[in-house]
Structure formats: structure tokens, C-alpha cells
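Quick question about two entries, pasted in order.
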Amino acid sequence: YRRLGVYDRSIATLAEAVPVYDRLNLPRRTARLNYTMASTYYESGDRAEAERAIRRSLELYGQSEDQLGYADSLGLSARMLHASGDTDRALQQFAEARPLLQKAKSRFGEAMLLASWAEIDIDRSDYAAALDKLQQASALSRASNNPYTETRSHYLRAVALQRDHRVDEAVKAIEIVIERVEAMRGSIARSDLRTSYLAAVRSYYDFYVDLLHQRGDAAAALEVSERARARTLLEGLAEWAAKIEKGADPALLAKQRAVQRALNAKESYRADVALRDGENSPAARAVAADVDRLL
């Protein structure tokens, strides 16, 4: 659930495990549970709960002398410190955690750490250092079969290249990201999870559009923007349809399917008109109004 951006379900599932782990008195597993909760809270924007959970994770890993678990939690703590503006402490924790991960031969953990560390280099305009870390992170991600961190590394590489005024290279990097995202979306069976996943990765599409504009390719930027908009709309409709199909009146269900077919056709036509005449053209606005009426 967390990887797909369904944070409420992820948190609820993890919360159910807390009393069980406490009752069994398993400090290392409880530490890992708190690490996962910290990551979920952090990505959902609840920094206070994330900080509480990561402190507990570090405490329990320290007590159990689990160096690998401690290093993983230290890397997440460093990422959170950087986000809160405490860059110096973040760098200290990254530097402390990496040798522990290398000693444990945790390519998965080292890849995540390097990608997060590279974000500090980008903020400090040290693009060469960032790109070096991200290259290592990508290689480690592939070796550990970690597509999420590999995709994030390519995204951060695109950001570093764009900040370094290497827009063409940045476009190539973000195209790899979009390709991976599309493959991942296609592999998700449930429509509600596809919708959540698209919402979670929308920033990748937005950055791709920005890069295409910077390169002066307005037509391609509009095409990407329209494709992302249409996909989000259609996935949302599929989710809505799945929710009402169970036990629905056959006549109501037939009407709903007819409306969805009309929406699919209108949205496809609107995208074609926008690409041909411009998104703000009278024709495109008229078709968009038709889509809104159907919704």
C-alpha cells in the first residue's frame, strides 16, 4: 500500500500489528515495524509521527545490536533531518550508516541511502557528486531488484541534470522514469490502487512537462500533459465503476457503462483537439465543458 500511495491503509495495517509485536516481545521485529511506520508517516506528510516512530526504531535496533537494521533506520532518520533543514546532522548520519550497510552487503539499503544523500548534493549545487551517487544507487538497485529506488534515482538524476542546465540529458533521464512508471501502472490489477499510484507519481509527469517546455517542445509537453490527465480521469472512472457494480441494478449499471463510454470518447476527442488547436482554444474548451457535464 505504501509504495502505491495508499498511506491510510498502510498505516491501519501496520497499527494492527503493533500490539501483537509488543505482546510477543520481539525487539528487532518491533524495530522494523517502527521503521516501516516512520517511512509511511513521512511520505504521507505526518512528520511528528514519523519522527516518533524512527526514534523508537533506532532505540530498539540499538538495544538488539542489529547493525543492519540500525543503519537502515539511520538512513531514514537522515533523510527526515534533511527535509527539516538540519543538513549537517543528516550528513553525519548518512556517513555513519553507509559503512554499516556496506559491511552487511546490503545493496538495497545502500541504494536508498545514496539516493537520499544525493538530494543534499543537489540542494548544495554539487551536481557532480549527486550524479556519482545516483549512478551508484541505480546500479545497486538493479543488483538488488529494487525498481522503486532505481526509478527514484533516475528521477533525481533528471533533477540534477536540469539544475546543471543539461536539459536534453534531463529529458532522457525522466523518459526512463515515465517508462518505468507506465510499466508499473500496467502491472497493478486493482483500479483503486492504479488511481492511487498515478496520484503518487504525478510529480514525475509534471516535471517531464516542465522539461519539455524548457527545451522548447511545447507540442510534446502538451501531449504528455493530456495523456496524464486522461489516464487519471479514466482510472478514476474505472475505480468508480468497480465500486458500484456489486449488487447494482442492471438498468443503472447499463446507464453507467453508457456514460463511461461517452466520457472515454469525449476525453479522447478533447485531447486530440487540444493537441491540434491548443489547450485554451475555443474548440478545446467546448469539449472540456462537455466532459465536465458528463461528470
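Here is the second entry:
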Amino acid sequence: LLDLSANALGRGAGERLGGALRHASCALRELDVARNRLGAAGGEALGKALGANTSLERLQLSANAIGERGACALAAGLARNGGLRELLLASNAIGDEGAAALAEALRSNGALAMLSLHDNEIGTSGGAALGLALEGNVSLRELRLGRNALGDEGARALGAALRLNVALSALSLRENGLTDAAAGALTSGLRENGTLYRLDLVFNRIGDSGARSLRALLSVNDSLDELDLACVSRRAAAPRVAVRARRAAPASFSKESLRTLDTRAPATALAPQVQRALGQGEARAAAGVGREHARR
């Protein structure tokens, strides 16, 4: 592991790092250069390196302002790479074009298992491209798309992908402006999915109807074990209680606890149900809960 994060390396460092990674003798497995202002040029240099490197398994490149140009270069390298397992690109403003390029790379790459695109200004078209790529991808296990602008249309594309995808086990869609329509689309896809284990829908605008449809899903889906609906709406009774349940149980609302809840009941009536679902020990722990940290 080479950790160079938060060192203000600047744009020139990306080219030097890329050159080192392309060297035939390079044996580095993990590289962390997050928060270094490498810019688009740095993204391009590292993209070229990915096309030739055979040793690197994890690349942390978050918060480097690589933009669409840098993301497209990384995608081109990723399409030719067979060794990288984790690629973290949070907070890089890659937009729809960058997301579409990475989606295209996922069609041919059979090695990448985790991709983080958190906080990247990705909208509906970027979400649609990623959805199409997921339909046939068999390697990606975790996809982080939190704090973007996918909206309901982007969620519909991902819901359609979940019908066919046989690999993804964790999906984060937190803070994407999703409503009950998105919940319905995801529910529809998950009725035919047997691999997704964790779904993060924190800080969206899903109301009671969407929460109920997701709860009903658990009676027919055997793989989904962690469903996080915390803070999805100020007006929805069930999600407000889900906030307390999430804090009381770090593993989030589990299938067992969600199945016991009557989401039609008012928030005050749900509190005792949550305590019973979580167990007395976990309910007592709710009094001293700490802050919830978003996974980037």
C-alpha cells in the first residue's frame, strides 16, 4: 500500500505516478491519492497506466477534480485492465458523460468488484447508462451512487437492471431525490433479484407508500437483508421510526425487524414495534447512539 492522500501533490504528480504504474517491474497493489488536486491531466495519466498495469488491485482517487475528461480516460484504461478490484472516484464531478464512459467499461471489464461514484453530479442519463451496463456485468459486487441526481428515472433504469443482474450485493442510492415512484421501480426489480444484500436509500423523498412496497418486498425476496430508509421523508411515519431503528442497530433495519412493522400506523404507535423488533438490548442502546457516517 502506498498512501499519498491529502498531500497537495498537484497535477504533475499524476503523470509521474502513471509512469511508475506502467513500468514492467511495478508490483504495487494499493494506491491512495485521494484529495490531491490531480485534475483531469492526472486522471488521464492514471487511465493510461490502468491500461498497462497488471498489479494494482485498489485505486483511491476521490476528490481530485478529474472531471469528465479524467473519468473517460480512466474508463478507457479500465476496459483493458484485468486486475483492479476497487476503484473509488467520489467527489470528482465526472457528470453524466464520465458515468456513461465508466458504464461502457463495465461491459467489458470482468474484474472490478467495487465502484464508488458518490457525489459526482450524475443525473438521469448517467444512471440509465450504468443500469444498462449492470444488466450483463458479472463482477461488480458493490456500487455507490449516493449524493447524485439520479431521480426516479435513474432509479427505474437501475431497477430494471436488478431483474437481470446476478452479481451486485450492495447498492447505495442515498441522497438522490428518489420518491415513491423510484421505490416502486426498485421493488419491481428486486422481486426477481436473488443477489442484492444491502440497499441504502437514506435521505430521499420516499413516503409511506414507497416504504410499504419495500417492506412487502421482503416477503418474496430472500437475499435482501439490510434496507436503510432512514430520513427518507419528514412526512412519512415509517421512515421517521426507521431513523431510530437505524441508530439503535448499526446493521440498519434488518429483514426480521422490517417484517414486524405495520407501516400504516402513526409514528407514535410504531415505536413499541421497533423496540420489539430490535430486541430489548438494542432498544436500550438507542439512548446512547452516535453519529451515522455515510460510506464514501
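Reply: The chain is about 45% helix and 10% strand. The two ends are 19 Å apart (CA to CA). Hope that helps.
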